[in-house]
């Protein structure tokens, strides 16, 4: 709504006719202006129904009744099995490569070759391990610190004397009251 009047100033000089008046009104069947742009909802609804009907009619005339056909998937001459599908590893590989400096992956491939030919493998074993960087260097030290502190506190509270235990509670309350202030 803002661009059409600006473009009309340029195009009216060349064509000699104002396109903005015609394009912006058309009795509510096109863009209308009342300080803002809008589209006629009845016109959109009628157009949607008509075009949907025309599309279905063309599909029925050209295609007729569609029949479901089941064939084997073309697999380059191989019998495709479920083991050949993409897995989450295939999608995660680019991410693993991008962040390999952070995750520090360890890749180990062991191959046992046939005695008859060194080109054919008898057995292969692939192992891929990612160092749990955040757990090892961030979470575990914090958890170990909290566990050590709780062990010390537990040793302090496992006292059979009620007066000493009440003294600990009173000292904790004083500390909390002083910190709140």
Describe the fold and architecture:
This protein is an alpha+beta fold and 181 residues long. The chain has three domains: 3-63, no CATH class; 86-131, no CATH class; 135-180. It contains seven helices and four strands. The strands form two sheets. Strands 1-2 form a two-stranded antiparallel sheet. Strands 3-4 form a two-stranded antiparallel sheet. It is flat. The mean pLDDT is 79.
Question: How would you describe this structure in keywords?
Answer:
single chain, 181 residues, alpha+beta, two-stranded antiparallel ribbon, two-stranded antiparallel sheet, 56% helix, flat
Q: Average pLDDT value?
A: 79
As a percent range, the share of strand residues is 5-15%
Count of structural domains: 3
The rounded Rg comes to: 38 Å
The largest beta-sheet arranges its strands as 1-2
Element-level helix/strand string: HHEEHHHEEHH
Q: Tell me the total number of β-strands.
A: 4
Largest sheet: 2 strands, antiparallel
Low-confidence stretches: none
How many H/I helical runs?
A: 7
Helix content: 55-70%
Q: Quote the distance from N terminus to C terminus.
A: 61 Å
Q: What would you call the shape?
A: flat
Label the structural class: alpha+beta
